[in-house]
Amino acid sequence: MANLAVWQAALDDLENRLDAAARSMADSTSDGGAAVGEWSVPTGLGAIPEELAARVQDLLHNQHKLIGELENARNVTLKHLAAIRSVPPERDARASVYLDVNG
């Protein structure tokens, strides 16, 4: 039974951290969100108790989903940075400037 309680506490912590990361990402007015703190691997867990297998699978699925969302956000940000960097810093005021927002 002690193993179950230790696993439940570890999963609670991971789920809370995942929720905090998702909220931080969803908050477009955020300055990056509050730091959750450094995570360290819990000790003494042993094997995952069978009754927690579905919860562990859900957590893993949600982690992969958030990772995908973070990768998409990163790619969009990189495209925006590339577009910004493509604009010359100085130009002749008499010359026309066009910015391709589609490509």
Automatic annotation (TrEMBL):
Keywords: Coiled coil. This is Flagellar protein FliT. It comes from the Bacteria. It comes from Cryobacterium flavum. The keyword Coiled coil applies. Residues 4-31 form a coiled coil.
